[in-house]
UniProtKB/TrEMBL annotation:
Belongs to the cytochrome P450 family. InterPro entries: Cyt_P450 (IPR001128), Cyt_P450_B (IPR002397), Cyt_P450_CS (IPR017972), Cyt_P450_sf (IPR036396). It comes from the Bacteria. The keyword DNA-binding does not apply. Keywords: Heme, Iron, Metal-binding, Monooxygenase, Oxidoreductase. The keyword Iron applies. Coiled coil: none annotated. Gene3D superfamilies: Cytochrome P450 (1.10.630.10). It comes from Actinomadura graeca. This is Cytochrome P450.
Amino acid sequence: MTLTVDEAGRALADPKSYADDRRLHEALALLRREAPVHRVEAPDYNPFWAVTRHADVLEVEREHGVFLNAPRTILSTAEMDEMNRQRMEQGVGLRTIVHMDDPDHRVVRAIGADWFRPRAMRDLEPRVRELARRYVDRMAELGGECDFARQVAVHFPLYVILSLLGLPESDFDRMLKLTQELFGGDDDDYRRGATKEDKLEVLMDFFAYFQRLTEARRRTPTGDLASAIANARIDGEPLNDFDTASYYVIVATAGHDTTSATIAGGLHALIEHPDQLDRLRARPELMPLAVDEMIRWVTPVKEFMRTAARDYDLRGVRIRAGESVLLSYPSANRDEDVFGDPHRFDVGRDPNKHLAFGFGVHYCLGAALARIEVRAFFEELLPRLSSIELNGPPESTATTFVGGLKRLPVRYTVA
């Protein structure tokens, strides 16, 4: 059945669209072609403009003084938008660096920036490679069959980021469950419940955990990222409890969920494109390019929202002050104007100007770490991998924000 433009726009507000690649990319291609800046009115959601062209997403990202992260940072139902607005007014809402605009954004982002600079990443890389080896060993121990997404991909990046934070390994499973509940609130397998109260309860569990962590690190700093966050000061004052907990939440969740999605989706792409797997094995020097192609292909962050601070013309469309835009990263990363044969998985794609990490002042703080993790894992896996194939149908998370494969059953031979 052929989609209309309005139906394609509404697909962006349907979590199930992101669990169906064919449906999603059919809708996005139609929007890029016929209505690249399209007003979407979907049931249960406040209206928004869908921005689907690479050049237009870039323009909005560059104009960060016009298009603000607050108050509508991600796509939520109208009911959740209102609840979030009320909580922010009360000073008790989730307020991470992705929710902030300058000058707050610049100052708060700087708290963790040194932990993700090139020198810090070089110091961390041996530990990342040690953990990558451990999880490839885990594949070998599983005897040639596993659900790669659930048993391998989700654990490796989680271990890396929570080790960087300094959390005890005994808490890792708890963090994984909370992250899946937070980002998988629209997915039947992950959500705690269907009501806004259930979603709020997940957030409050995060906050309670990290409030205890803050108190412990302020009493006894331990030289880890959690200590840096807990003891950070702005204008001589510590962050308030909710801003401190929010900082932990964004690092602990976005710091692993996006990378695990890329690793699982990257392996799936190599299985589905055996010529590219053979090419990468024959030419391991292509790995840095292959990593960025996996990131483009998967695009774990599906969207961010921006709100216009003043009237602005985008591709001839007048966006009024106070109106919201949705930046569709999967669409920008398949834009025919930028990527030759964009629906082809190409481990040697160069240049690869994907926007999976955003652009400009809000560029992903953990981008370098994500690249190191994906590269380390596949550089450890491929020399030991003799064969691999699907062992059942893959399944993706129903989401409108962050997600990827939640099941990837595979059969393989790993030395």
